[in-house]
Specification:
This protein is α/β, with parallel strands linked by helices. The chain is built from 13 helices and 14 strands. Strands 7, 8, 9, 10, 11, 12, 13 and 14 form an 8-stranded mixed β-sheet that branches.
C-alpha cells in the first residue's frame, strides 16, 4: 500500500468537455477548446496541486449524441466535472444524465435554457455564461433608450431561439411588428423572411442566429438591400467567429453581450493577448465563458487542496466563485447563474484592420435573470 500512495495522491482530476467539433458549427467548439487549453496553460496544468486532464467529446450538433457522450464521460471516464454545451437542446437532453443520475457537477459554458434557471435548477448545475433571456433583455433595454419604435423578430425554432425572442419582448417597449421562427438547424436561406421584413418596414430587425447561421443572415440581409434601410440588432450572431466571414457587411451593427474583448482588468487583458498571440485572432464570448469555467473548477479544487471527494464541499466552494473572471467581479445568484453586467458592442475594425467588436455602452448592471425567483434553491 505504501508504494501505491504517491500514485493515488497524483491521480489526475478529470474534466469532460462536450461541444460541437464537427460539421458547420465546429468553429464554435474549436474556439471553446482553444480557450480551455489556454486556461490549462495559465494554470500550469494543475488544479489544487494535482494534474488535470480534459476529455473532449463531440456532440455533433445533436441532442441524442450529446446525451450519449455525457453518459460516457460520467459512467466510463468518471469525470469530476463536465462543461461545454453550446446548444440548449443538447444541454437539456444531457442534464438528467449528468446532474441527477451521475451526481456530477456541470458547468455550462454557453447554453442557459430558462427551465434550468427556474424549476429545474439543480445543486450540481452552474453557469459561467447567462440565462438565455438576459442578453436579448439587455438589447431591448438599450433599444428603448435609442427610440427604436418597431422591431421585426427572427430566430430559430428551438429552446434557445424561443428564449431569445421572449427575452427581447420582456424589456422592449416598442411595437413588435411580427416574429418568425425558422427551421433549426436545417434552414440557411432567409430570403422569405427578408421579403416579409421589407414589406413590413420596421425600424429594426432583431435576430438570434449563432455561428454559420449568423453569417448567412447577415450576408442575405446585405444582399437584399435592407442593410441600407432597416438596421440589424442582434445577439450571438456577430462575433469573433463569424466576423471574418461577414467582414465589412457587419460594420456598425450592434449587439449585446456580458463579455467583450476590450473589458478592463488584468485577467481579461492576459487572456485576450495570449489568445491572439497563439491563434492570430480574437477570442469569442464562447471562449471567454469556457476559460472562466475552467478557472471556476480550479478555484474549488485549490480551496480543497485537490480533494474533491466531498461533493457538498466542492459545491460550496464553487458557489463562492473565488476566481479572477475575465469579465471582472463574478458572483452567482441562488440558481447558480451569474449576476452580471451586460454591454452593447459595435462591430468595428481594429487599428490593424481586423474585424472585431468594441464596447460602446453598459446596458444593464448586476442583472439577475428573470427565472431565479422560480428556483427553490436558496
Amino acid at each position: 500500500m505504501a508504494f501505491g500512495l504517491p500514485a493515488v495522491a497524483q491521480s489526475p482530476i478529470k474534466v469532460g468537455f462536450v461541444s460541437t467539433f464537427s460539421g458547420p458549427q465546429a468553429a464554435i467548439g474549436e474556439d471553446m477548446r482553444r480557450s480551455v487549453e489556454l486556461a490549462k496553460e495559465h494554470l500550469g496544468g494543475k488544479m489544487g496541486g494535482k494534474p488535470f486532464e480534459i476529455i473532449y467529446e463531440d456532440d455533433q450538433f445533436k441532442p441524442d449524441v450529446g446525451k450519449a457522450r455525457s453518459e460516457k464521460l460520467v459512467q466510463q471516464d468518471k469525470v469530476n466535472f463536465i462543461s461545454g454545451y453550446i446548444w440548449s437542446n443538447v444541454l437539456l437532453a444531457s442534464l438528467k444524465t449528468v446532474v441527477d443520475e451521475g451526481d456530477t457537477i456541470l458547468i455550462s459554458a454557453n447554453a442557459g435554457p430558462s427551465a434550468i434557471a427556474g424549476e429545474l435548477c439543480n445543486k450540481n448545475f452552474f453557469s459561467t455564461s447567462w440565462q438565455n433571456d438576459q442578453t436579448p433583455m439587455a438589447m431591448g433595454d438599450y433599444l428603448n433608450t435609442k427610440g427604436v419604435k418597431s422591431l421585426y423578430l427572427v430566430g430559430p425554432n428551438y429552446a434557445a431561439g424561443k428564449d431569445m425572442l421572449a427575452g427581447v419582448k420582456r424589456t422592449y417597449k416598442g411595437k413588435i411588428v411580427s416574429e418568425d421562427f425558422t427551421k433549426w438547424p436545417d434552414q440557411l436561406d432567409f430570403s422569405a423572411e427578408l421579403t416579409k421584413i421589407a414589406a413590413a418596414k420596421p425600424d429594426g430587425i432583431f435576430i438570434f442566429y449563432p455561428g454559420a447561421h449568423g453569417v448567412q443572415f447577415v450576408k442575405q440581409w446585405a444582399q437584399s438591400g435592407l442593410n441600407k434601410t432597416v438596421p440589424l440588432y442582434q445577439v450571438f450572431s456577430i462575433d469573433a467567429i463569424t466576423l471574418p466571414q461577414q467582414g465589412d457587411l457587419a460594420l456598425g451593427t450592434l449587439g449585446a453581450q456580458e463579455w467583450v474583448n476590450d473589458l478592463p482588468g488584468e485577467a481579461n487583458k492576459k487572456y485576450v493577448e495570449d489568445f491572439k498571440k497563439k491563434h492570430g485572432v480574437y477570442p469569442s464570448y464562447y471562449g471567454a465563458q469556457s476559460y472562466d469555467a475552467i478557472m471556476l473548477m480550479a478555484s474549488a479544487a485549490d480551496a480543497l487542496k485537490g480533494d474533491l471527494s466531498n461533493k457538498d464541499k466542492v459545491r460550496a466552494e464553487m458557489k463562492k466563485a473565488n476566481f479572477k473572471s475575465v469579465r471582472g467581479d463574478f458572483k452567482f445568484g441562488n440558481n447558480n447563474f451569474p449576476i452580471q453586467n451586460f454591454y452593447i458592442q459595435e462591430a468595428v475594425k481594429d487599428p490593424q484592420g481586423m474585424m472585431t467588436v468594441k464596447t460602446i455602452a453598459t446596458a444593464v448592471k448586476n442583472a439577475v435573470d428573470p427565472f431565479a425567483e422560480k428556483c427553490p434553491m436558496k
